[in-house]
Amino acid sequence: MENILTLGIETSCDETAAAVLRGGRELLSNLISTQIPLHRKFGGVVPEIASRNHIVNIMPVIDEALAKANVKLKEINQVAVTFGPGLAGALLVGLSAAKSLAYALNVPLIAVNHLEGHIFANFLSAPDLEPPFLALVVSGGHTALIKMIDYNKFELLGQSRDDAAGEAFDKIARVMDLPYPGGPEIDKLAKSGNPDAVHFPHPKVTGYDFSFSGLKSAVLNYLNSAQMKGETINPADVAASFQKTVVDTLTEKTLNAAEEFKLDKIVLAGGVAANSSLEKSLREACENRGFGFYYPSKILCTDNAAMIACRGYYQSLENNFADSTLNAVPNLGL
Asked: b/e for 67-78, b at 16 or more Cβ within 10 A?
């Protein structure tokens, strides 16, 4: 199985991506065509624009991924593709390409959950990583704590009940007139602010679920109140204080879960894994407790096809394949 070549395809949102993987962890190529400049002027992703651009980009990106990997299309042994969650139209572009290629090559098709893919990005960044471990998945649409028992066995411990952490970052950035995507802009602005300048309430949710809608409302109320009173605010202090509240909440719940379930390895995954404050907080907390800490390289934090190929490979070890009836599932859960 170590010589199996997997073609990964990812089009769940606004990144058109393809990758070629040999075995489970040898990444031969990882191509990403981003649409950020197209959507920035709208302040967020416009689904119709995303879908149309995926149609234009999908085959050139796949061709370039094969060329960079120095692999011919006929040498591909299986095709892994994201089928959810994501934007329906965007997902369908990747699915159509993957199903067509799998049929033409007469090779297996593998349906990959995008959120599971984010966890598997860590196997590409850390060749020594093995289950079991605790994974914190933090992205634009999801925040979840997952006990990974084995490569194909998971237990969902908790997830976001309303706004995910990444969604809260983007919404606060938008009201502060920061460019899209907002998460990295908040992180950048927060570096020059005082994280203790403004006290925002920590979300109070029992167990290992998350809720950030109340925090988002508290920040909006603070900004609106200051505007109505004609008070001057320090945007960097607001960004730093908001970010600290989110990071503290994520870190506390993650460490509590690791201790309760006796897991000494913590894995960070998803787009918000690129947040420097979150990475630093978890790293220091793990070092203090003697836990192993893993997180992907920056390019593997974003939506990419390498993680989809990796997840697909481990699914293939259990003959977990899809057929030609595979369809997009925009609201697919963990």
From this structure: eebebeeeebbb
Pairwise CA distance, residues 60 & 55, whole Å:
10
pLDDT score recorded for residue 313: 98
Separation of alpha carbons 186 and 276, rounded Å: 11
pLDDT in tens, 253-288: 999 999 999 999 999 999 888 899 999 999 999 999
Question: 């990796």: which residue's tokens?
Answer: 310
Q: What sign for the dihedral angle of Cα 156, 162, 168, 170?
A: positive
Domains identified in the chain and CATH numbers: 5-121+301-316 (3.30.420.40), 131-296 (3.30.420.40)
How many other C-beta atoms can be found within 10 angstroms of the C-beta atom of residue 232? 6
What does 227-275 look like in DSSP terms, one character per residue?
HHHT----HHHHHHHHHHHHHHHHHHHHHHHHHHTT--EEEEESGGGG-
Total-model pTM: 0.94
Instruction: Return the structure tokens found at 302.
Output: 């974003």
